[in-house]
Amino acid sequence: MQCGFGVSKRSSTKSEGITTYITIGCSRFGKSNISSQNILNPHPITKTQCKARIFAKRLEDNKWIVTSFSDEHNYVLSPGKSCNYRCNRKLTATAKRKLELNDADGIRMNKNFHVLMVEAGGHENLSFLEKDCRNYIEKVRRLRLGTGDASSLQNYFKQVQSIDANFFYNIDYDEENRIKNLFWADARCRAAYEDFGDVITFDTTYLTNKYDMPFAPFVGVNHHGHSILLGCGLISSEDTENFIWLFDT
Asked: Where are the chain's structural domains?
């Protein structure tokens, strides 16, 4: 890994929970499956069908034997970039604490990460990337929205919708079924959007909730020149995936 390549692991486990074989290979094994190619912004090719790997299987006496091994890569290794491979990246306890404190103070992630980079003397001295920090803070924010709060929120939205059939809400869940993002708009907001939805402003600079989830109001202007609310959203972090979900909703 320190030689300049990432690793991936594959294994097979029986129903009894016993691992029968394991393969540890170069992360560039296989072929990239890109359905479309953007000429202006091409997707980087990360798979080169590299055959470097080690294969081992378990014997009947529970001992392991290496059955095949290859250390030949079909691309130029980059030892200087080894810290960027996922298998080598790790957020330290100190970094996690600073990220949480700065996030609670409303410091945006780009500045939050910049502080850690300066303290380390450069990004090459960090064992993690900015996206690792974003993923961690996003997870922390979701955890702040506890089970009781999440259930209460869903019950409240359902109650409002039972009274107002035009009340709309949508909730985005993560892989662990926790609330990740949400959007809502009542009947008045939806009617205002139909009449004054030609020009809309969108701002996520307000971190007013106790979960530090960016509040995202959609605001329009009526025929009197007054600001009117068209809808509201809460997102776990300001990244592209969450914004796409919010705008699609």
From this structure: 1-83, 89-144, 147-248
